[in-house]
Amino acid sequence: MPTVLRSGPYRLYFYSHEPNEPPHVHVDRDEASAKFWLGPVQLAANFGFRAHELREIQSIVLENRLRLLEAWNGFFGSSGG
Q1: What range defines the domain where residue 8 resides?
Q2: Average pLDDT for 14-34
């Protein structure tokens, strides 16, 4: 599970065994977890985050979208996803 970014209490990462899905990141804080697609940025799944946190996380993902895509493509190759 390569960690791509840490922002405040959030850890953004991807699983190394998901190359056949479109580019996305998982976000964890404590026991909460979410998944965001990167193109376009949108929530794919939420397990425990409140709405205001999801908005904050989405802003973090949007601000770092290019960096996250570069990390995805660097790990899986540009054809991954």
Answers
A1: 3-76
A2: 92
